[in-house]
Design a protein that fits this description.
- The chain starts with a helix and ends in a 6-residue tail after the last helix.
- It has 4 helices and 4 strands.
- The chain is α+β, with helices and mostly antiparallel strands.
- It has one domain: Ribosomal Protein S5, domain 2, CATH 3.30.230.10.
- 45% of the residues lie in helices and 17% in strands.
- The protein has a 4-stranded mixed beta sheet with strand order 1-2-4-3, sandwiched between helices.
- The longest helix is centred in the last third of the chain and has 20 residues.
């Protein structure tokens, strides 16, 4: 069962720059305690499930700190990914406070973000 969950994480990542740009352009921007997040419904490639992307710019610190932030974020996303059921692309911009945050607090915040996205996208089914 663990292998299947890891396998589903691989397909649940935003990889292309164009996908990030589409989310920024067509999506909505929201704020939480320790991150900013963008999300947009995906009309192309339906029924592939949600995809999540992370950004960690140099403003967050040196490479070691940025990588630690990304590892913590990926783990919190992995644990809560099943809360997203719609075809939606999500981009998360963590703040530096993620480094010092308790992992359980980070998981709870990601869970709230995913539930908010799910409810915001829920009423907007594509036509046709």
């Amino acid at each position: 069962m663990l292998d299947r969950r890891i396998q589903s994480m691989r397909g649940a990542r935003l990889r292309k720059h164009a996908d990030y740009q589409r989310v920024y352009r067509e999506g909505r921007k929201h704020f939480s305690a320790s991150m900013t997040y963008f999300f947009a419904r995906r009309s192309s490639h339906p029924d592939q499930g949600p995809r999540v992307g992370l950004t960690a710019g140099r403003v967050l610190g040196k490479a070691v700190e940025r990588n630690r932030i990304k590892r913590r974020m990926r783990e919190a996303i992995r644990i809560n990914l099943d809360r997203l059921t719609r075809d939606v692309d999500v981009v998360l911009h963590p703040r530096r406070s993620v480094l010092a945050a308790d992992l359980r607090t980070l998981q709870t915040e990601i869970a709230k973000i995913f539930l908010a996205i799910e409810s915001a996208v829920g009423g907007k089914e594509p036509l046709g």
